[in-house]
Amino acid sequence: MKVLVALGGNAILQRGEEGRAEEQFRHVSAAVRQIIRMIRQGYLVAVTHGNGPQVGDILLKNEYARSILPPMPLDICGAESQGMIGYMLQQTLLNHLTTSGLEIPVITVITQTRVDPDDPAFLTPEKPIGPYYTGEEAGHLREERGWEMHRVAEGDQGFRRVVPSPDPLEIVEHESIRTLSDEGFIVISAGGGGIPVCENEGGKLEGVEAVIDKDLAAERLATAIGADTLLILTDVECAYTGFGTGSQHPIEHLSGAEAQELLDAGEFGEGTMAPKIKACIRFVESGGKAAVITSLGQALDALDGRAGTRIIP
Amino acid sequence: MKVLVALGGNAILQRGEEGRAEEQFRHVSAAVRQIIRMIRQGYLVAVTHGNGPQVGDILLKNEYARSILPPMPLDICGAESQGMIGYMLQQTLLNHLTTSGLEIPVITVITQTRVDPDDPAFLTPEKPIGPYYTGEEAGHLREERGWEMHRVAEGDQGFRRVVPSPDPLEIVEHESIRTLSDEGFIVISAGGGGIPVCENEGGKLEGVEAVIDKDLAAERLATAIGADTLLILTDVECAYTGFGTGSQHPIEHLSGAEAQELLDAGEFGEGTMAPKIKACIRFVESGGKAAVITSLGQALDALDGRAGTRIIP
User: Which of B80, B82, B203 sits opposite A98 (nearest CB)?
Assistant: First the structure.
């Protein structure tokens, strides 16, 4: 039984924390302990993860040093975050496996995700990234770097850069990842949804200034490596109908079609639960046996069908 | 015939340049063109690379943002640089392979390198890293962060942090890398000499504040993956006796023992040619067929024995 575990970026660097390396390693340990429990129960595990908070910090550092060092584009910053988070996960997994007497090789693979250059998202960038700016700074950045800047909050520092979040078409390295996974490696890949690349007119891959939803990318990965289950771990124990209202109700089981109906009815928060549900629907429609949304603490129970929201074909 | 190609960090980001992503991609392309020529001639290639200039920039960005974001330790910065450089190499290799009609999977593996916590280098840190500081700043950093600070240049901004450069004992992921290489993958690994880790008392791996010489790490990797040839690419076409003197003389062939004699006699620059020669000696003493030092432009001729310095058992 192969499971792709998709960890939220917030599972590793949490809002309100400083973001020190020790804090991140501590959160990684908590996630790894759950993964080890899955392995002990016989699951074959592959891992992917978000990178929002980490790439945000990398972007901010680039901005702070921009008077002396040219800021790196988003594809490079994404690659840096894959190295960083992959290293923490890989080292911690290896340590916990050794302690558990398990000899399983762990490998972090730098991963690109192909998107369509004609994706409509490129016409209307909407995903805010990086630091907050004043209106004046935002104006300069629009002019100097051609960035799209939106007001995203009230007050003085209310502007942020927005970039497109195109739909992931394909994990470029999926064959390698599948081979490794089939041979028994625990593969950590497609971090942050993968580094967004487009095929240019000459047929060559090129990084683009965009971000990819990590859950939608996780579905492409899970399908490509032949996972039975896509396990999306997030801050809540399950998906709800009427979330945040007086009639909030946990969802236990849904068919793909039922999930699609609720999604179309706007039951799920854009940018939070909606892309997760969308990823789950796609997964079961592409041949996956089950997609599960739950919290880290409920992960094992949810795999056994005793917690979380489960979407089946 | 398996070759491990070790690219210098300066081969990708050169001194005197701004370090923009496009510049780095251009240098990566030049390196990749040579690698493609090797593949066309039938060599099985694995790749490793330095990260000096890139990790220097990452450290500098960390320092610039330190008032609002905690600086990351060296192991994390090294992991970031592996992601960044690995991505550039991987994408460019893939593009050139496709153009050449070659279907070979390329994979970048985040790599740790184990060092001995009792390595004498930990007692006398000597490798300067990161930005330059004034004497006053250096004093603060000594106190606040316990950094070892040395004066490395005349003038106002003459101080730098120095860290240990312990001898690499083992590439932690060497079995995975060998498996992938034997299966025909072009593996990019051990970037920047690998992320330095020590085994702590509980037997767990832990990052350490150190840097690893990339050529010495390349030797460990080349030996572990069963490479026939270790090819070290650098700024000069070969090693010399009397380098920089009136009687400078290129070296064509050396046995391991001859190389050791010249090394002991101080013929080679510390921190430049000496570690490369040392890596070559170790490689042929550990069963490698030949170790070659040359420039990127001479790489193919040097593999054929028509250029560069060749060290044989």
Answer: B203
